[in-house]
Specification:
- Pfam families: LysM (PF01476).
- By secondary structure, the protein is α+β, with helices and mostly antiparallel strands.
- Among the domains are: 186 residues, no CATH class; 79 residues, no CATH class.
- It contains ten helices and 18 strands.
- Strands 1, 4, 5, 8, 9, 10, 11 and 12 form an eight-stranded mixed β-sheet that branches.
- α1 packs antiparallel against α10.
- The radius of gyration is 23 Å and the shape is globular.
- Bound molecules: 2-acetamido-2-deoxy-beta-D-glucopyranose (NAG) (5 copies).
Length: 425
Amino acid sequence: MVNQKPFHKTHIFLSLLVFTNVALLVTSKSTIEPCANSDSCNALLGYTVYTELKVSEVASLFQIDPIALLTANAIDISYPDVENHILPSQLFLKIPIVCSCVDGIRKSVSTHYKTRPSDTLASIADSIYSGLVSADQIREANSISDPSVLDVGQTLVVPLPCTCFNGTDNSLPAIYLSYVVTPVDTLAWIAARYSTTLSDLMNVNAMGSTAIKASDILAIPLPACASNFPRYAADYGLIVPNGSYAITASHCLQCSCGPGNLNLYCQPASLAVSCSSMQCRNSNLMVGNVTVQQSGGGCNVTSCNYGGFVNGSIITTLSTSLQPRCPGAQKFPPLIAPPTSVIRDTTFAPSPAPQSDGAGGTGAPKSSSSVPSTTSMLPGLAPIGGPAGSASGSASDACSLINPLANFPTAVLLLLYVKFMMAIL
Ligand SMILES: *[C@@H]1O[C@H](CO)[C@@H](O)[C@H](O)[C@H]1NC(C)=O
Ligand SMILES: *[C@@H]1O[C@H](CO)[C@@H](O)[C@H](O)[C@H]1NC(C)=O
Ligand SMILES: *[C@@H]1O[C@H](CO)[C@@H](O)[C@H](O)[C@H]1NC(C)=O
Ligand SMILES: *[C@@H]1O[C@H](CO)[C@@H](O)[C@H](O)[C@H]1NC(C)=O
Ligand SMILES: *[C@@H]1O[C@H](CO)[C@@H](O)[C@H](O)[C@H]1NC(C)=O
């Protein structure tokens, strides 16, 4: 069972190569995941707020629940009138979306946009949806013959990129973030920012080198807590990334992931809504309650767990297990106050790393990793994480370490070899 997954991914990987080769000829890159059936899954979009917008306005751009938007970003929902809180321009948010399977390819098609005066396909794509879609993709999805005449009030489908890869990455639960590369990004910076590795990012995105360019869309795997709800549950497939929350069961339950472990933990939400019983049968425990009892052989842990939302009822399961040690109190991901300004994230800002010495001197970069400026980025988009000069300097350092991989066929063989080794291990 465990050994099957890498083989399966290799298969996907091969298919990706074929697709990517075709895609390369056309336009900017995004990861394409073939899919077979009509199952949908959960994914995230990396979205940059284009102007000051209320929480509810951002949510309605994607037709999602404002509370789901807040919890996905670990924003405290107990603030009064939080849905009308105004989010600052250029704030980066994770948008939880449903990822469907359309014509054999994973994509999100649940987003619709009603045009307003002065909208153009380019402004909708590049600004309002922050580069997650291109003007051409909107034009195609809506069979628009003349993009220069957009009727005001016309409802457009906005196809958005998403991937699921079966909710796993290297056999561990993961949710995928569709991330629009900015002019100052390097693959090394993105890997550090999202606590993943260069090779994992390259593998997931079927890349032959670490070169990325602005407006490429990368799939970034985020470690997550998976649920195990039955297929007929309304929230089947719920998956919560480490460090965040999700609201489910008609706002009755709140589930969190991390920081201590990657076990999904659900408990009653503090929102004032009426809910069906959350008590476990034959016990006085509520969903989220855990009791421990020291016994000779270890610690007897009884917990009342959430098992999915079925026909308007909250399914609960009581489980008892003997564990070597009693678990400590449940820990929760830290919540943040509704943001009022964009804090520049300097934690992972590229800086001249010790790497540059080991990588063979300070000579000119061997491969072109500088980002071309011929992109459709917003004029107002400030570089995040420091001056562009230092960013690209570091990029070349990071790239020269991986330079042998820039040779595409070699990279393919290498990666397949790694995959193969992983499969037999
Ligand atoms: C998808 O993942 C599940 C476990 O999360 C596993 O049981 C199933 O076999 C996987 N399917 C494929 C096609 O890899
Ligand atoms: C989850 O997040 C916490 C806090 O950010 C981190 O310490 C921990 O290593 C993460 N766990 C995984 C598996 O990524
Ligand atoms: C059970 O959970 C409820 C709601 O989260 C909480 O109020 C209560 O104190 C818990 N009871 C025990 C015994 O832990
Ligand atoms: C563990 O606790 C449960 C409920 O309190 C009890 O039914 C069970 O017998 C206990 N098991 C052991 C091994 O002590
Ligand atoms: C949900 O309710 C409908 C009718 O009320 C019933 O036919 C169906 O079997 C129920 N589904 C489950 C999973 O209980």
